[in-house]
From TrEMBL:
Organism: Nezara viridula
Keyword Transmembrane recorded: yes
GO cellular component: membrane
UniProt GO BP: proton transmembrane transport
GO molecular function: antiporter activity
Protein name according to UniProt: Cation/H+ exchanger transmembrane domain-containing protein
Length: 486
């Protein structure tokens, strides 16, 4: 009888545990997750069915669009797995693309290269617009000279450091050494911006405008490095082309991106004054997408991203000024945040397959690591020097230099170009240098993108303040120092 009573008590305890509020809450979470993923799978099945009715074999196993679909699904799954272990989702998405390309499954690039560019540009335009909507006009105005210093000085110093290292470690011509330097120095807005916006939305660094400072400088940093890379490429492979036009391309991209972005931003701003939320979202989104894709199409690839950020910033300024949106609740920014969760796998998943291990000379990896690490140390040091005397604490300056680490998008797009010129000439004496450049760029992507993203996410809450209200004293001090520097 005593044994029966003991067993009955155990059963009762199990029933109480099953019916406890904690378990009920867990059950709700599981049900919510199950419904979410069932909906996602159902949408994908319906979309695939529609594509099959139109394109037939292309969406069957082995078809180009089927490969793209599998890549996007794997990238999404990789991102979710990284979330479970408290890592940035982009790491899983990037690794999914690399693994599918390495194992030989994903061969989509040679079939539909234009669709790849468009897919990636769509995702990039969404995060650039989201970044523009998050810029703080007051901070940007006060820290304008700091933005310019931060955009130019670390970029140029890193390029020169990499060039000197490449020259003396490998005994290569100076012109090739600087080509390696300027492929290494641009940071990746696709990696940096989402990480910074995540911290910004939680309030970290908002008292000093850290996110605004870094995001604004990132666009100029990329334009400068891409332009100089283009000039050097022209000098090496197209000496008969106009050197003057190559040199002027950088300033033209900067002016064109700013001017075009301001014009489109004013148009979107005044057309959206009457609180037409979806009109505001669609006009900004379509304009940003056209700017990114169009600038790439016409050979001014740096102007498009800058125009996308600028147009979003200007439009948001107009809407805020007229009371259409508020700083606390910006529905347009929320819409682009939702869009970003959808298109994010396309951006990072499609960067991964561009990392082609088959053309990497393993014997060059040691030299590549030395070049990359030396240039990265120089960038971080000069970044801190650029931030002196603007009212930042040492830990905040350290965070900005950490935020300046990630590289991915531009290196993946530009690094294969020198190799492409030698595909028909395997005995060319400069082929080894082109392989060194590619190996260095790939190493920079694999090391800096995941480590930089993780470092931003982990160090942000520790190194940045999270006050209830912005510290106006610090911002005014920064303004006075900027005006003094000017």
């Amino acid at each position: 009888m005593e044994k029966f009573r003991h067993n009955f008590e155990i059963v009762s305890q199990i029933e109480d545990f099953i019916e406890s509020p904690i378990t009920t809450e867990n059950t709700k979470k599981w049900k919510t997750g199950l419904v979410k993923w069932t909906t996602v799978v159902l949408h994908m099945a319906l979309a695939w069915s529609c594509l099959y009715l139109v394109l037939h074999g292309e969406v069957l196993f082995g078809g180009g669009l089927f490969q793209l679909l599998v890549l996007l699904v794997c990238a999404e799954v990789g991102g979710e797995l990284c979330k479970l272990v408290m890592l940035p989702p982009l790491l899983g998405m990037l690794l999914a693309g690399i693994l599918l390309k390495t194992c030989g499954f994903f061969q989509f690039y040679g079939v539909y290269p234009d669709l790849i560019v468009i897919s990636r540009s769509l995702a990039l335009s969404v995060i650039l617009i989201k970044a523009g909507l998050g810029l703080n006009p007051a901070v940007l105005k006060r820290l304008k000279f700091t933005v310019l210093r931060l955009a130019v000085v670390p970029c140029v110093c890193e390029a020169f450091a990499a060039a000197i290292a490449a020259k003396y470690f490998n005994q290569i011509p100076w012109i090739w050494a600087f080509l390696i330097g300027f492929i290494l120095c641009p940071i990746s807005p696709a990696v940096v911006i989402p990480s910074l916006l995540s911290l910004k939305e939680k309030g970290y660094g908002e008292d000093k405008g850290i996110a605004t400072l870094v995001i604004a400088a990132a666009s100029i940093d990329d334009i400068l490095s891409i332009s100089i890379f283009g000039v050097i490429m022209s000098s090496i492979f197209r000496p008969e082309s106009s050197l003057t036009m190559s040199i002027l391309q950088g300033p033209l991209e900067l002016i064109g991106g700013l001017a075009g972005g301001c014009v489109w931003g004013l148009i979107c701003g005044y057309l959206g004054i009457y609180d037409a939320e979806w009109d505001q979202t669609s006009l900004l989104g379509l304009g940003g997408f056209i700017a990114v894709v169009g600038s790439h199409e016409f050979g001014f690839s740096g102007a498009g991203p800058l125009a996308a950020i600028t147009s979003a910033f200007v439009a948001n300024y107009v809407w805020t000024k007229h009371g259409t949106v508020s700083v606390e609740k910006n529905k347009v920014a929320e819409n682009f945040g939702k869009l970003w969760t959808i298109v994010q796998p396309a951006l990072f998943g499609l960067i991964g397959p561009e990392v082609d291990f088959s053309v990497i000379d393993v014997s060059l990896l040691g030299q590549s690591a030395a070049i990359f690490l030396l240039s990265l140390v120089i960038r971080m040091a000069t970044c801190v020097l650029c931030l002196l005397k603007i009212g930042l604490q040492w830990k905040e300056m350290l965070f900005v230099s950490i935020a300046w680490i990630p590289k991915a998008t531009i290196q993946a797009a530009l690094a294969p170009q020198p190799l492409d010129h030698f595909r028909g000439d395997p005995d060319h004496p400069d082929l080894r240098i082109a392989k060194l450049l590619f190996a260095t760029a790939v190493l920079a992507i694999l090391v800096s993108a995941p480590i930089g993203s993780i470092a931003i996410s982990l160090t942000g809450p520790k190194l940045l303040n999270k006050p209830n209200k912005p510290n106006k004293l610090i911002v005014n001090e920064a303004e006075n120092n900027d005006n003094h520097d000017s």
